Amino acid sequence: MKKYSGCKVLFVLLSLIIPPGVFGQSIVTGGISGIVTDPSGATVAGAMLTAKNSGTGATLTTTSSANGEYQFALLKPGDYVVSVTKNGFKTSTRTVTALLGQNAAFNVSLELGSSATSVEVTGEPALLQTENANITTSFDSKQIQEIPNPGGDITYLANTAPGVTMNNSTGGGFGNFSTFGLPATSNLFTINGNDYNDPFLNLNNTGSSNLLLGGNEIQEVAVINNAYTGEYGRQAASQINYTTKSGTSEFHSTVIYDWTGRYLNANAPLNKVAGNPRPFENNNQWAASLGGPIIKNKAFFYVNTEGIRYIFGSVHNVTVPTPAFETFVLGKVPQDAATQAFYNNVFKLYNAAPGIANAVKQTPDATSACAKLAVPGGACAETFTQSVPNGNKEWLLSGKVDYSFNNNNQLFGRFKLDRGVQPTYTDSINPVF
Asked: What is the pTM of this model?
């Protein structure tokens, strides 16, 4: 009697109960599968199927099974030209999109005739998948570019998926969004299959701008909610999977530039009430990329750079010393030249604060320290509302090289460099402080 280990028995059982379509894709690939039939609806065995990647020219082949079933598994997301050939039938051709983390259903009904005659099918495959309960929302590179998204944070796309609600300052918790009531710390972000979560708060990684930049480099995004199939795990809320672009058999490039400024924005209500003009705000964001072949149909490269520089207005309530308090202090401190010069320089900074012309004196309480000092004029401090600009800059450089050994073995390498300066504090008086 033959003995089987526990792992082998488990594998056999899983192979019996898990549908084949489950193995057609992973979190970084897609799949195409279906059934080949004749005009009567009977299944066709032994049909030759070819899937050619429209970008790289990579070609995969398979044949339909005894039940007419076929499958192209673990495909790089993108468009594929699928051709079906069988003696006694016309060749059927259709362009099918392999979506990230999904199995595209393409059932083929062959027409009688010579295989030298080709029939191009123009209908779209079914959009409703019935293999599992995953709720998947996919975005291709064109959608990523065209969805209104100020700042270009690529996590923003998840807000359009079912069950997702945006977090705000009143909602509490961390992160940009929650899914079906689960906290944002239960979301999982991956890029090309690698985790991209911050190790401290378990949120998505960001750069100095607190934005997850890189939209020009992204090929496809899949937001999967209710994700309990085998390829997903560890986090119960949204699984946000990104794949990055690769070079193709033709050279291609992109250049993008976005600008917004003060003249496109309204004045903040509090700033307007205080009599201050619209603050100076300026946002410049750009991206450029280049991709193409290194060795035709074998090796490809893709390089991308992106950046953002913005200046924003920060509205503050500011308290500064009054001229009376300034005179009082200068009369009390030592009268030597060095001490007087030091205090005069400090008060000059206060007196040059933006918006100080709108300052209003504060009447001190009778028990306050200011009242006890008996400052001439009675007030030690004055307040006003101001808006002063602050800036942030971030840029990134990324690159990817893909190499195909054969149709079943591919290798890629990617690097990313992200640099920036973050203003964590805006001083209302002077940057010296």
From this structure: 0.74
